[in-house]
Design goal:
By secondary structure, the protein is an alpha+beta fold. It has four helices and two strands, in the order H-H-E-E-H-H. The relative contact order is 0.20. The protein binds zinc ion.
C-alpha cells in the first residue's frame, strides 16, 4: 500500500497531461497488458471501501493498486507503467530505494 502511494505521488508530479484529462473525464485507458477493457472495482475490507481498477479479462490478471478514492484509482491505472510481479517489484524497489 505504501508503495502505491509513492507511485501515485510520482504520477501526480510527473507530466501526464493526457492521462490526467482522461482521468478527469472518468475514462479508463485499455489494459496495458492485453488491450482489453478495464473496470473500476469497489473493494470492501471491513472499513471504508477502497477502489482499484483491474482488467476485465480474468486470464489477464492486470490490476492497479487500491486507493481511497475512485479518482485516484483511475489516475493510477491511467498513468502507471507496465505491471510487475511482486518479486520484480521487490527486486526493483529493494535495489533502488534506500
Ligand atoms: Zn488485460
Amino acid at each position: 500500500m505504501e508503495q502505491c502511494l509513492l507511485d501515485e505521488k510520482r504520477a501526480l508530479m510527473d507530466d501526464h497531461e493526457a492521462a490526467k484529462r482522461l482521468t478527469d473525464a472518468g475514462v479508463l485507458v485499455p489494459c496495458w497488458r492485453c488491450g482489453g477493457e478495464a473496470e473500476l472495482q469497489e473493494i470492501h475490507t471491513g472499513g471504508k471501501p477502497v477502489y482499484a481498477v483491474s482488467c476485465k479479462k480474468h486470464h489477464c490478471g492486470a490490476y492497479g493498486c487500491a486507493h481511497q478514492t475512485k479518482k485516484n484509482a483511475v489516475a493510477y491505472w491511467n498513468t502507471r507503467a507496465p505491471i510487475l510481479s511482486a518479486e520484480e517489484v521487490e527486486i526493483l524497489y529493494g535495489k533502488e530505494n534506500p
